[in-house]
Every structure is written in C-alpha cells, then in structure tokens.
Amino acid sequence: MNEIRCGSCRKLLMKSAERAIVGPVEVKCPRCGTLNNLRPLEPFSERPERQIPEKTCPGNSSSKTP
Ligand SMILES: [Zn+2]
25 - beta bridge partners? Predict the structure, then answer.
C-alpha cells in the first residue's frame, strides 16, 4: 500500500494500492487545506525507490523476516 500524504504538512491523507489510482485525483488536506493532485504512474514519494530484490543477503537485513 502506498501512503498518500499531504505535500505541505505531511498528514496522511489516504492509503492506496499500487495501481488503485488510474486517473487524476485531487485530495484536499483537512488540516492545512492544501489541494494535493495525485497522478497515476507517479509514486507519491520524495524518494524514488526502485524495487530491489531482497534475496541478496538473507540475515543481513534490518527488516522483519516473515
Ligand atoms: Zn496538509
């Protein structure tokens, strides 16, 4: 799930699946009133993270192991 946050105050606005947004979406932040424009195929994140395979070094990761 992707967390959709306000671009101004970082308030969590909604969560969506990867391809849940298929068209332009406008979300008005209830806290600061900023109108956030969401577009598909554009990750709503400041850090573009590529999908890195996690099979590189098992046991050497700080993430939780299922
Ligand atoms: Zn806001």
Answer: 38
- 3 CA distance to ligand 1 centroid (A)? 14
Q: Cα(61)–Cα(66) distance, rounded to whole angstroms?
A: 12
Give the torsion through C-alpha atoms of 46, 52, 56, 61, to 10 deg: 30
Domain segments of the chain as ranges: 2-38
Q: How far is the CA of 42 from the centre of ligand 1 (A)?
A: 19
Q: For residue 4, what are its two tokens? A: 């959709």
pLDDT, tens digit (0-9, with 9 covering 90-100), for 20-49: 888 888 999 999 999 999 876 555 555 556
